[in-house]
C-alpha cells in the first residue's frame, strides 16, 4: 500500500455521521465501519487526532426556544461529544488501537483533561487522540475546536468528513445539478458563504496556512484515499 502523504492529521467527524437512520443516538454498525478505516490509517503510521461533534445526541441551539439558554445548551452539546468520543475509543481499542480521550472540560473519571504537551506525546507514541467537549466554551462549534486542535497539534492538514462528496455551490440534496468544487481558497469559501466550516474555523486555518480537505466519509476507503493524497473531495487552501 502506498505511503501516506501526511504524517499527522486531524480528522473532524460530525456527530450526525454516527446517527441511526431513525431517531437519535449512535449507529454502532456505522461507527464500526468508520473505526475500521481509522485502524487502517493508523497502521500506515499516520499520527491521528479526532474531533467528534455531538449532533446525533444534542445540538447546543436546539433547546434554546423552549428551555436552556444558549450557553447551557452548548455545554449540554459538549457533553454529547464526550459520549461519542468514549464510544469511538471503545470501538478502536476493541480493534487493537490504543487511544486517549482528552476533554476540554475536566471529567477525570472518564477522560484526561486536555493538555497540549501531553496530547502531543500521545500522538508521538502512536496513540489515536480523541478530543471531546469542543473548546470547553459556549458559542464555539466543534468545527472551531477541530481547527484549534489541528493547529495546536501541528497537523499538516485538517480532514472534515461529511455525508456529501465535498463543497458545492448549492445544497446537492436540494439542487441535484449543484457543482462540486475541487479546490477553493479560504477567501472564496468565506466570501461565498459555502459553509465548508464555520467562519471562525476557516479564518483560523487561513491565519495558520492549514489546508482543509472536505470529503464523503460514507464512501468506503475515503480516509485512506485522502491520506494518500489522491484526488478526493474539496481542498481549501491559500488565497
Mean pLDDT: 92
**What is the 3D shape?**
globular
Number of domains: 1
Q: What is the end-to-end distance? A: 33 Å
Write the CATH architecture name. 3-Layer(aba) Sandwich
What labels would you give this structure?
single chain, 239 residues, alpha/beta, Carbamate kinase, nine-stranded mixed beta sheet, two-stranded antiparallel ribbon
Secondary structure topology:
Blueprint (H helix, E strand, L loop, with lengths): L7 E6 L14 H16 L3 E6 L17 H25 L4 E5 L8 E2 L2 H9 L3 E5 L9 H12 L3 E6 L4 E2 L11 E2 L1 E2 L1 H6 L7 H9 L4 E5 L5 H6 L6 E3 L3
Parallel strand pairs: 1-2, 1-6, 2-5, 3-4, 3-5, 6-10, 9-11
Antiparallel strand pairs: 7-8, 10-11
Descriptive account of the structure:
With 239 residues, this protein is of the alpha/beta class. The protein has a single domain, classed as Acetylglutamate kinase-like (Carbamate kinase). Helices cover 35% and strands 18% of the residues. The chain is built from 7 helices and 11 strands. The protein has helices spanning 28-43, 70-94, 116-124, 142-153, 186-191, 199-207, 222-227; strands at residues 8-13, 47-52, 99-103, 112-113, 128-132, 157-162, 167-168, 180-181, 183-184, 212-216, 234-236. The strands form 2 sheets. It has a 9-stranded mixed sheet with strand order 4-3-5-2-1-6-10-11-9, sandwiched between helices. A two-stranded antiparallel sheet has the order 7-8. Helix 1 links the parallel strand 1 and strand 2. Helix 1 packs across helix 2 and helix 4 runs parallel beside helix 6. The radius of gyration is 17 Å and the shape is globular. 43% of the residues are buried.
Amino acid at each position: 500500500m502506498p505511503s501516506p502523504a501526511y504524517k499527522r492529521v486531524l480528522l473532524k467527524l460530525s456527530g450526525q455521521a454516527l446517527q441511526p437512520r431513525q431517531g437519535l443516538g449512535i449507529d454502532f454498525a456505522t461507527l464500526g465501519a468508520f473505526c475500521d478505516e481509522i485502524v487502517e490509517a493508523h497502521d500506515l503510521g499516520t499520527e491521528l487526532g479526532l474531533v467528534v461533534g455531538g449532533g446525533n445526541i444534542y445540538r447546543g441551539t436546539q433547546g434554546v426556544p423552549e428551555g436552556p439558554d444558549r450557553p447551557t445548551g452548548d455545554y449540554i452539546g459538549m457533553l454529547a461529544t464526550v459520549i461519542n468520543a468514549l464510544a469511538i475509543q471503545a470501538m478502536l481499542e476493541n480493534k487493537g488501537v490504543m487511544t486517549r480521550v482528552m476533554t476540554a472540560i475536566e471529567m477525570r473519571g472518564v477522560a484526561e483533561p486536555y493538555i497540549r504537551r501531553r496530547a502531543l506525546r500521545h500522538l508521538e507514541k502512536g496513540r489515536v487522540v480523541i478530543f471531546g467537549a469542543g473548546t470547553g466554551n459556549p458559542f464555539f462549534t466543534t468545527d472551531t475546536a477541530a481547527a484549534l486542535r489541528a493547529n495546536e497539534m501541528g497537523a499538516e492538514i485538517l480532514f472534515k468528513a461529511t455525508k456529501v462528496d465535498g463543497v458545492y455551490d448549492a445544497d446537492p440534496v436540494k439542487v441535484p445539478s449543484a457543482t462540486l468544487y475541487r479546490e477553493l481558497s479560504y477567501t472564496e469559501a468565506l466570501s461565498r458563504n459555502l459553509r465548508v466550516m464555520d467562519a471562525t474555523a476557516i479564518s483560523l486555518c487561513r491565519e495558520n496556512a492549514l489546508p482543509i480537505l472536505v470529503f464523503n466519509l460514507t464512501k468506503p476507503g475515503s480516509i485512506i484515499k485522502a491520506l494518500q493524497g489522491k484526488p478526493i473531495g474539496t481542498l481549501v487552501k491559500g488565497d
